[in-house]
Design goal:
heterodimer, A: about 375 residues, abc type-2 transporter like fold, 2 domains, B: about 300 residues, Rossmann fold, 3 domains, six-stranded mixed beta sheet, four-stranded antiparallel beta sheet, 10 helices, Transport permease protein (chain A)
C-alpha cells in the first residue's frame, strides 16, 4: 500500500513540476492578493472628493471649513458658486460629499439659535457615505465644542452641563487597523479557493484523461487513490497558510499573539474540509469546465457567508443558518483569534470542534459519492 | 491449449436507464485463446469488456476470471487482469518511461523485472527511442502502443482490449498484433472487441454481437461454413446499379456493396451465376466479371446477424 501511495504522490508532484507555470500560479497570485488586501482593502476612508458651497462668507464658516481641510479625510475638489453646481458635482461623480453653509450661519451661531449645516452625500456607495457622514458629525461636534468654549470662556464646565466622556480603548487591535483584520482572513479565503479548485480539477482531469478508470482496474484501492489525490493539495494548503502568515507578519507587521500549533491544528481541520469539498465537487463534474463553473458557484457564497467582510450578526436569520455549515466561518474565528487575541484551545475549542465535525462530514460524503461515481 | 477456461460469463445483463446494453450474454474463453467480440458500434461490446474488467457491475449474471468470482471479489482479479479501454489513460505531462514506471508501481512490479520487461515491450512496440518523450507528444498509434506496454508491464494472465486498434495506423497495427501473437505464445488469454472485420478474422474464436446479444460464437472458419448459401463477387463499373437490379432476383439471399464490386449471396453459385449475368445484360448493366469467392467475416456477419453491416 505504501509504495502505491508513494507513486501516486510522486506522479502528482512530477506533473506539477512538469507544469512550468505551476509554482508561479501557486505562489504569485497568493502574495499579490495579500498585498492588494493589505493596501487596498480598508474600511477607513480618506481623501473623499468634496465640493464646498459657502454662502455665508464669514469667519465662522471659514473656520468650520478649515477643520474639514485639516483632517485629511476630505479632499476639496471644487468651490461651488451655486446650488446647481453642487448638484452637478454630485451627479457627475466629481464629488462624493458636498458641504453647504447657508447665509446667516455665523449670525445664528452667535445668537445661539443653532446654525444649520447642510451635507449631501452620494449614497450610491452606501458604505463610503455612511463613514463620511460619521466624520462630518465628528468634525461638527468638535467645532461646536470649540464655539461653545469661546462663547462661554470662563467655567470649564458650563453650569448645569453634564458631559459623558468616552475613552475608546479597543482591545487586540488598538489602532483599529483594518489590515490586521483582513490579512488573517485572507489566509482562510485564499487557501480555501486554491485547495478546493486544485483538488476538484486534479480528480476531474483524471476522469477526463481516462486514467481514473485505468487506475481503478489496478490493485489500488479507491481509498488509496483518494489519499493520493488529496494529500498533495492538503500539503500545498498548509504551505499557503505558512506563506501568508509569514508574509503578513513580516511585511504588514501584523501581530501573531497566539500559539502556532493551535493555528496548525485549525488549518489542518479546515484543509481537510477543503479537500473534502474539492473531492465532492469533482464527483458532480465530468469535465473541467463543469468543475470550474461549480467551483465558482460555491466559492462566492462561502466568502460572503463567512464573516470575512460582512458581519454574520447583521445577516437575515436564514442566511445565518447557512454560515453554520461553512468551514470558512469557523476558521476565520480561529485564525483571527490566534493572530490578534492570542487565545488558545480553551477559548477556541467550540470552533475547532465545529471544524472537525464539518471536515469529517464533508470527507465522508465525498468519499461515498466518489466510490459511487466510479460505476 | 485446452487446459481450462480463463473467463466464464453466464447470463450477463446490464442496462443503462431504459436501454438494455447487454441482455443475457454467456460465453466461455479457454486459456491461451484470442477471443474476439465483433459487431457494430452500440452492440454492447464495451459494456461486456467493462464488466469483465470489474469496473462495471452487471445487473445480473456471473463472471469468473481464472476461477475467481469477479462480482464478489473484484479486487482479487486485478493483479491477474489487464484492461485497456478504447483510449488508454496516459499522463500526457509524464514521459513514456514515467508512465510505464507509474503503472508498474501500481501493480507492485519488482524493479528488476520491470526494467527487463519494459525494455522488451518497448522494443516490440518500436517505442525504444522515445522513452524520454512526453506521452502527450506521441502520435495516436504510438499512444495506443504505449497503453499496451503499460497494460502488459505486470504480465497479466488475461488481457482485455476494447477496440485496441481503432484509429491506429497500419504499421502500428501490425506491431500491435505481433505483440499479441507473442503473448498468446506465452499462454496469455486475450479478449478483444473490434468493429474491424479483417481484425476479427485474426481471432481464434469470435462472438458476433448485435443489439446486446451474442448471435453466433465459433472459430472464423466454422462461422464461414455456417453461412447459408454461397458467395458470388460481381465487379462492375456501377456496382450500385448491380445491387438494385439483383435485389429481387430468384435465388439471391443477400447483397453487400464492397467498393467496386457487389458480394451476392445465392443458394447455388453454379446455377445462379449465368442467370444473374443474363439479367444484368438484359438491363444493359456492364459487368466486368462474376466469380465465386470464399466469404470473409464481414459477409458472414451480414448473413448471420443481418442489419447494418459493420465497417
Amino acid at each position: 500500500m505504501l509504495d502505491r501511495l508513494y507513486v501516486m504522490f510522486m506522479k502528482e508532484f512530477l506533473e506539477l513540476k512538469r507544469d512550468r507555470w505551476a509554482i508561479f500560479r501557486l505562489v504569485v497570485p497568493l502574495i499579490l492578493q495579500v498585498v492588494i488586501y493589505g493596501y487596498a482593502a480598508t474600511f477607513t476612508i480618506s481623501h473623499v472628493a468634496t465640493t464646498v458651497l459657502d454662502l455665508d462668507h464669514s469667519s465662522a464658516s471659514r473656520a468650520l471649513l478649515s477643520r474639514f481641510y485639516a483632517t485629511g479625510r476630505f479632499n476639496i475638489v471644487d468651490m461651488a458658486a451655486s446650488q446647481a453646481q453642487v448638484t452637478r458635482d454630485i451627479d457627475t461623480g466629481t464629488a462624493t460629499v458636498a458641504i453647504i453653509i447657508h447665509a446667516g450661519f455665523a449670525r445664528q451661531l452667535l445668537n445661539g439659535q443653532g446654525a444649520p449645516l447642510q451635507v449631501i452625500v452620494d449614497g450610491s456607495n452606501s458604505n463610503t457615505a455612511l463613514i463620511a457622514l460619521g466624520y462630518v458629525s465628528q468634525i461638527t461636534a468638535r467645532f461646536q465644542a470649540g464655539a461653545m468654549a469661546s462663547a462661554w470662556p470662563q467655567p470649564a464646565t458650563p453650569p448645569g452641563g453634564i458631559t459623558v466622556s468616552l475613552e475608546q480603548r479597543p482591545w487586540f487591535n488598538e489602532g483599529l487597523n483594518d489590515v490586521w483584520f483582513f490579512i488573517p482572513g485572507v489566509i482562510g479565503t485564499l487557501t480555501l479557493m486554491q485547495v478546493v479548485s486544485l483538488t476538484a480539477f486534479a480528480v476531474v482531469r483524471e476522469r477526463e484523461l481516462g486514467t481514473l478508470e485505468q487506475i481503478m482496474v489496478s490493485p489500488i484501492r479507491p481509498f488509496e487513490f483518494i489519499l493520493g489525490k488529496t494529500v498533495p493539495f492538503f500539503l500545498i494548503g498548509l504551505g499557503d497558510v505558512a506563506l501568508v502568515t509569514i508574509f503578513g507578519t513580516l511585511w504588514f507587521d501584523i501581530p501573531f499573539a497566539g500559539n502556532p500549533l493551535v493555528l496548525l491544528l485549525g488549518a489542518t481541520l479546515f484543509l481537510l474540509a477543503a479537500v473534502g469539498l474539492g473531492l465532492l465537487l469533482s464527483t458532480f463534474s465530468r469535465t473541467q469546465q463543469q468543475a470550474f463553473a461549480l467551483n465558482f458557484f460555491f466559492i462566492n457564497p462561502l466568502f460572503t457567508l463567512s464573516g470575512f467582510a460582512f458581519p454574520i450578526a447583521a445577516m437575515p436569520r436564514v442566511l445565518q443558518w447557512f454560515t453554520l455549515i461553512n468551514p470558512l466561518r469557523y476558521f476565520l474565528v480561529v485564525v483571527r483569534a490566534i493572530f490578534l487575541k492570542g487565545v488558545g484551545l480553551g477559548a477556541l475549542w467550540p470552533d475547532l470542534a465545529a471544524l472537525a465535525a464539518l471536515a469529517a462530514g464533508m470527507l465522508a460524503i465525498s468519499i461515498l459519492r466518489f466510490r459511487k461515481s466510479l460505476d | 491449449m485446452n487446459n481450462g477456461a480463463a473467463v466464464i460469463a453466464q447470463n450477463l445483463v446490464r442496462s443503462f436507464g431504459a436501454t438494455a446494453a447487454v441482455s443475457d450474454v454467456s460465453f466461455s474463453i479457454q486459456r491461451g485463446e484470442i477471443f474476439g467480440f465483433a459487431g457494430p458500434d452500440g452492440a454492447g461490446k464495451t459494456t461486456v469488456m467493462r464488466m469483465l474488467a470489474g469496473v462495471l457491475r452487471p445487473d445480473s449474471g456471473g463472471i469468473a476470471v481464472e476461477g475467481i468470482d469477479v462480482i464478489a471479489n473484484p479486487e482479487g482479479i486485478k493483479s491477474l487482469l489487464s484492461y485497456m479501454p478504447q483510449r488508454f489513460g496516459l499522463y500526457e505531462d509524464l514521459t513514456v518511461a514515467e508512465n510505464i514506471f507509474f503503472y508498474a508501481e501500481l501493480f507492485s512490479v519488482p524493479r528488476k523485472i520491470r526494467l527487463a520487461r519494459a525494455r522488451e515491450l518497448l522494443e516490440a512496440a518500436g517505442l525504444s527511442p522515445f522513452q524520454k518523450r512526453l506521452a502527450g507528444q506521441l502520435s495516436g498509434g504510438m499512444k495506443q502502443k504505449l497503453g499496451l506496454v503499460c497494460a502488459l508491464i505486470h504480465t497479466p494472465s488475461v488481457l482485455l482490449l476494447d477496440e485496441p486498434t481503432t484509429g491506429v495506423d497500419p504499421v502500428s497495427r501490425r506491431d500491435f498484433w505481433a505483440i499479441l501473437y507473442n503473448l498468446r505464445e506465452s499462454g496469455v488469454t486475450i479478449v478483444l472487441s473490434t468493429a474491424y472485420m479483417d481484425e476479427a478474422e485474426r481471432c481464434s474464436r469470435l462472438a458476433l454481437m448485435d443489439a446486446g446479444k451474442i448471435h453466433y460464437c465459433d472459430t472464423p472458419a466454422r462461422l464461414k461454413q455456417a453461412m447459408p448459401g454461397m458467395l458470388l463477387a460481381i465487379t462492375a463499373a456501377d456496382p450500385r446499379a448491380v445491387r438494385a437490379a439483383l435485389a429481387d432476383a430468384p435465388g439471391v439471399l443477400g447483397l453487400l456493396l464492397m467498393g467496386d464490386r457487389v458480394n451476392v449471396r445465392v443458394d447455388d453459385a453454379a446455377r445462379r451465376a449465368p442467370e444473374l449475368r443474363a439479367r444484368l445484360d438484359a438491363q444493359n448493366i456492364a459487368v466486368t466479371g462474376i466469380s465465386r469467392i470464399e466469404p470473409a467475416i464481414e459477409d458472414v456477419f451480414v448473413a448471420l446477424v443481418g442489419g447494418g453491416a459493420p465497417a
